[in-house]
Design brief:
The structure is a single chain. The chain is an all-alpha fold. The chain is built from seven helices and no strands. Helix 2 (about 40-60) packs antiparallel against helix 3, helix 4 runs antiparallel to helix 5 (about 90-120) and helix 5 packs antiparallel against helix 6.
């Protein structure tokens, strides 16, 4: 929702200032352009909500995974606000200090998000480096028959994660054709992500079911053995 909410802010600004829809809307130095301080605030708002949700989940469950997930969302804040500094600092400071920091934070955010998608959401063994299994760098149980689908999903997800960082950067929003293209690619990435996420949850459900059946059988057997009818003297 980050891009959608920031677009609503920009549209509201246009209507408030009674501006007509022209190509000038996309200029960075326009009154409602990328230099607006509200743009990074609205971009960061959905990530801030997810950040708080992860902290609340940790408070309730004490699972360290929730803190790691919160850290993932927190890595987006430097990308958003360092990008917005371009229009509020001297050009020398931007090119010498803040732009390199923005690039570094973008790489960290993209890599962290990519790791979380593959290892946590999809539960694939890409980062474990396991080549001994029958499905190298994947997992033992695969729902889809063609393995190349998984390798394609991993590689494309990495590229599209890096492309999504472009959308978080206010100083690049005036490149409207590129933003539009990356928005379409992000829709494809999330559509692709769903299938492997559901597959992972399905595998977990099968694992829980296979563990529960023996336990149920053991309970029935225990009740039979402890029944008074089986201990007649």
């Amino acid at each position: 929702m980050a891009k959608v909410i920031s677009d609503i802010e920009r549209s509201t600004c246009r209507m408030y200032n009674r501006q007509v829809a022209t190509i000038a809307w996309f200029e960075a130095d326009d009154i409602c352009g990328s230099h607006s301080i509200w743009i990074p605030c609205f971009l960061a708002f959905p990530y801030f909500c997810r950040f708080l949700q992860c902290l609340r989940q940790y408070y309730d469950t004490r699972e360290m995974t929730s803190l790691s997930n919160a850290l993932k969302y927190a890595t987006s804040f430097p990308v958003i606000f360092l990008s917005a500094l371009k229009y509020h600092v001297l050009p020398e400071m931007w090119h010498g200090v803040y732009r390199p920091l923005w690039l570094l934070c973008s790489v960290i955010n993209s890599c962290f998000s990519f790791y979380w998608d593959v290892s946590r959401d999809w539960d694939l063994g890409f980062f474990s480096g396991s080549f001994k299994s029958r499905n190298p760098l994947l997992r033992t149980n695969l729902l889809y028959n063609n393995k190349w689908v998984y390798y394609w999903a991993i590689s494309s997800n990495l590229l599209l994660r890096c492309a999504w960082t472009y959308k978080l950067s206010a100083h690049l929003r005036h490149n409207y054709l590129t933003v539009f293209t990356f928005s379409g690619l992000e829709m494809l990435r999330r559509f692709q992500w769903i299938f492997f996420r559901v597959e992972n949850e399905y595998n977990k459900m099968l694992t829980r079911t296979s563990l529960q059946v023996p336990m149920k059988e053991m309970t029935i057997e225990a009740e039979r053995l402890l029944s008074p009818s089986h201990h007649v003297v």
